[in-house]
Amino acid sequence: MRTFNDPNKLQRWALAQRLAGRKIALVPTMGALHEGHLSLIAAAKRKGADEIVVSVFVNPTQFGPKEDYAQYPRDHRADAAKCRAAGATAIFFPTPENMYAPDHSVWMVEDGALSGSLCGARRPGHFRGVCTVVAKLFNIVHPNFAVFGQKDYQQQTIIRRMVRDMNFDLKIVVAPIVREPSGLALSSRNAYLSGAEKESALALSRALKKLKACAKNGPRPWKAVKEETWDELGKAGLRVDYVEAVDADTLAPVATLEKGVAVLLAAYAGKTRLIDNAVM
Description:
Order of helices and strands: EHEHEHEHHHEHEHEHEEEE
Distance between the termini: 39 Å
Number of domains: 2
Number of strands: 11
Strand content: 15-25%
CATH architecture of the largest domain: 3-Layer(aba) Sandwich
Shape: globular
Largest sheet: 6 strands, parallel
CATH class of the largest domain: Alpha Beta
CATH topology of the largest domain: Rossmann fold
């Protein structure tokens, strides 16, 4: 497995692979890799990638001033070992200094149709940072396709729109959420949770399971279902951020819970903000 730190060296290597007719997959991550990330590498292998490039970069531009950038877990040695074992062929460990010039001033900004609600409304500037760094990774790696996880539902929806609207020459593959046997969605931030907080966090996946069963029984007005779900999460010890039902493609709010609708949840277990979702 090749290791790159310099974006220019990776770009030259990637271009040579493309010219040689090799299919490149990009798996963008912020590190602290777990089975959810490794499932993205597996998805890239199933799609026939000849080269699988995993980027590991805690991107400072997508964190707010009071968020956990400094504390976000980092373990490059462990991440490299996991990538090698999972079948990645290259890993990219850039730094903020070689990803952003001191006078960096050009940003990739979604106009708010997709980023103005949900996490975007609560984390100003977050998706500006996400879209910018992902666009930079696309230009550095020149992938035939990139693999994202469904757990960050709003993110993958925005990235798919960015690829469409900006004519990036690649495909986006969305891999399903990977969960612990308990149902808890895997996340690097799960490492922050105490035992009691982890138990409370299970209410997120339980709520989604209940909502999916509800949707199978026919349409129901969302307002009443939302209030009930909010109360259940609160009773489990979570501080609810949002409970929203949206169109699965446009993220527009919907008035009815029914098949095909996406439900997105965000809540705090202690000080740790967790997200989860399901398409009904």
